[in-house]
């Protein structure tokens, strides 16, 4: 399978047609380059707020409502494009109301146009202290013809037990849509994605927002690039990087992913992190404090 990871600019749109044209161009570009699964970033859907005008788009609380008003239309667009191109599409995540709270939700579309979703689990300080976004529903693994796919949204990728939960549920590919303001934030998520690939002996696919959107407080400054990471083991890249883009340069980053290669390295790799994970448990409480 060929995967595509986006480095995605947040644009202002004066009309729905402008937004739809942009998404269509991005999806068709990836599909025409052979991508069978494409990953858009976290909160890339914030550009939908521009359709409500500058005042609402620029207000942190109102931007949530402005985006949520358009998510159903965006979902219909992504579903249609997935059908047209015969691809899997992880749409850019969006803040959406869910009963008595607002969650950060990534929606995943298959070539039949069906949709499933994954909510972010652990909120950053900005999300919980300034924006009042809450953790959503449980982690999920989706069975596709290309392997079992899990999703860790941005900060979630920095927590090994979340990744381990996906691995124990059978995940072989983990998608990591991300939104980071500074290089330090991008680096944290990149290290998280690479670490999950190492310990889970899987492939992780990281997408980022790039550039500036001064009209939207939530994603006003963005740093990152696309990346596809792997365990540095038999048959994989020795540095753990299958492909990376160019920092802060919009576009797709592509990589070939062979799920059979993932399964083989779990069975007979130079190391067996997945198999040996359980050996930590009897030892984690044994650290002793000694005078020295």
From TrEMBL:
**Record-level Gene Ontology MF annotations:** hydrolase activity
Q: Which Pfam families match?
A: CN_hydrolase (PF00795)
Q: Would the keyword Transferase turn up in this protein's UniProt record? A: no
Annotated CN hydrolase domain residues: 1-259
Keywords assigned: Hydrolase
Checking InterPro entries in the record gives: C-N_Hydrolase, C-N_Hydrolase_sf
Source organism superkingdom: Bacteria
Q: What is this protein called?
A: Putative amidohydrolase
